[in-house]
Amino acid sequence: MPIAISTTELRKRYGSVTAVHSLDLAVERGTVFGLIGPNGAGKTTALRMLVDIIHPTSGTLRVLGEDPRAAGPQLRRRIGFVPGDLRLDGRVRGRSLLNHYADISGDVAPGMIDALAERLHLDLNPPIRALSKGNRQKLGLVQAFMHRPELLVLDEPTTGLDPLVQREFLLMVREARNSGQTVLLSSHVLSEIQQAADQVAVLSRGRVVAQGAVESLRLGSIRHLRAGLADTTVDAVRTALAQLSQLGQIEVTDGDVVRLTARVNGDIDAVIKTIARFRLVDLAVEEPDLEESVLSLYGEQAPESSEKEKNNG
Prior knowledge:
The protein is α/β, with parallel strands linked by helices. Helix content is about 35%, strand content about 30%.
């Protein structure tokens, strides 16, 4: 599949602080690609380099087949961008601002602005300075989507939105993908990524610590196991499990049957074979949600965030 975004050893330094370390990404056209990471992970810095707000210190970068630094306004018209620090103010009304942006981006279908505003429950008539933070965020989303760009770059796009509008936004993202648009979505709201993204990259300290399909990231980390074991004792179960290094947070309780609850980190095969020595009354293995998987990764590679990194995503 053709590539919409590619980066090779992309790096950004601010003095002695490296906000993005040797970032390698390949985002296929017509997909939703999620960037996950806490403040300081490098998400916002990476997105700003993609849209040429800031320049890389080193490495190579291609967006829709172009070098953002050389392509100029023609490339930017093919991109819809919502910054993480969206700042809109002034006496101009929302409709006037969007009409101004439409003159710049071009090719906004008749009625598109009103249709998007209606979906997001946004009144375009008040002056921008009178809008709440959530309504300003909606205005930013309308300007990003209204010209149906080839690429949407969305940095924390649901900040300040209520749950119903968040759900509508996710529907808009899926519709964009289905129409062949590419979406790069950065968020710390992990449920958004879990619902919307095809591929995910997890950033920590400006580095990719995990990358792949959402399903593979979830399956690749931890599982929760619950079992009922008959004709045995708590001590016997604990002794059998003592040599299994992949078990964490074990709880073994007595009753009509011995109840085992444990978190499995990594390969589950040896765990299943061990408890199969007992008479199993019931067994449940649950995969974690994406949030727990990511937090598990951060537990191993906790980000060191400086004040500069916090300000640059």
